[in-house]
Amino acid sequence: MKEYSCGDVVPGCGARFTADTEEEMLAICTVHAQHAHGLTDDAMPDALIASIRAVMLTSV
Ligand SMILES: [Zn+2]
């Protein structure tokens, strides 16, 4: 299980997500970024993906 707090990458955002896999988490984050953070591309920038991977927590 993966856990991610968007506020760790985007200060002030209170959204928290859980997903079974890193790929699923990135898909969820992409949709969240499009709706909550004004992302207009189909995918997040590589730098943002790297930031999310870096702060994503793994739990059982
Ligand atoms: Zn957010």
UniProtKB/TrEMBL annotation:
Pfam families linked to this entry: DUF1059 (PF06348)
Organism: Jatrophihabitans lederbergiae
Domain of life: Bacteria
InterPro entries: DUF1059 (IPR009409)
Protein name: DUF1059 domain-containing protein
